[in-house]
Amino acid sequence: xxxxxxxxxxWPLFGHLSGFLKANRCVLKDARVRxxxxxxxPRVPATDGRQNAxxxxxxxxxxxxxxxxxxxxxxxxxxxxxxxxxxxxxFPTNFATQLEAYVQEWTQKSSQYRAYHADEPFPHFVLTxxxxxxxxxxxxxxxLQGSSCFRGQRESxxxxxxxxxxxxxxxxxxxNSSGQHHLDRDIEEQEMFIRFQQQAHHYEPMTPSADDFAxxxxxxxxxxxxxxxxxxxxxxxxxxxxxxxxxxxxxxxxLWALDLAWLRARAESLLDVYGLTWEAKDALARVQHTxxxxxxxxxxxxxHIDPSMTxxxxxxxxGLLLCKTYNEVTFSQILVSMITHxxxxxRPVVRKLEIEKGLRTEVLQRLQDMNINNASLFPGxxxxxxxxxxxxxxxALRESARLSGMEFERx
Length: 411
Prior knowledge:
By secondary structure, the chain is an alpha+beta fold. It is about 40% helix and about 15% strand.
């Protein structure tokens, strides 16, 4: 039996939406006014009372999926009737217990030992799972709770560290010893900030005001200057694209999910000690608040910043910026500190999905069908040109898979 769902929107739809429907095996009949999605479902007798509950669960799942990818609030979506949905796979019930036991063991070690093994504990605070199919990826996304932000990395072994953390890392080897340390990240960032602020107007006519620190950092990040910022996105599909955009050198790539609601709540509770939490009533107050946070030195936290000036590329990628307020430790280390203080959360707030490298062709093709490619994520001729190259690469990869007897079924 075919169930039908009616989704109404108040504005013309973009290619992302059409692709999303196709990738999820839905039929698009009218894209400008009203959308009718059809999916095959088992017949559920209306007399046993399960049909209404089934429709309610499906409506909630559809609303969540569209809100994640398109930033549409639930109030903008009106859905009725059953639609194919994905099963939820809860996280391990003993995760909190195992994390607490590890923290107790780790804190018993000497402070010198903990300092030397800087990022070593981070994987223990991450719920890591694996996916060997496109469906497994969708199932993983469906189980996420709360509002999450996402980041894709082409190496699953990489931690969550900023470019500034990576570029200032100094390693050395001697005949009898080896080690590593960072250059002074505050000094290096300040020098680059001053030089960029002095010279940017030669290349870019529109620059932020001199005291808008957040917008300057965002602009530096946009042009590839190492900063304390880490790029995330509200769309798991955009993050998935960045996981596979370049050929992975390892066996798996990583799709990260961070509970943004938890991060904001924990940051506010830690900032409250310094009297820095208040309700910003207008845009100017929010900018001033953000700039004040970025100049903190006493409170090592990660905050979501909302600069007053953003790029077209950031809007296209549904991007958001997370910033560490303390430069002398890595992003991962601060995240561990926030998870452990003042108390451990009762659920995993940082999750990682390790995806098999062999899925690259299928994932890129399905994302291409959703209009997620270089042309849509990097507006401009350069992005369009790269999208043509990627189309050719996908075509060649698919032909190789076909000849090898490994071709996947397109939606």
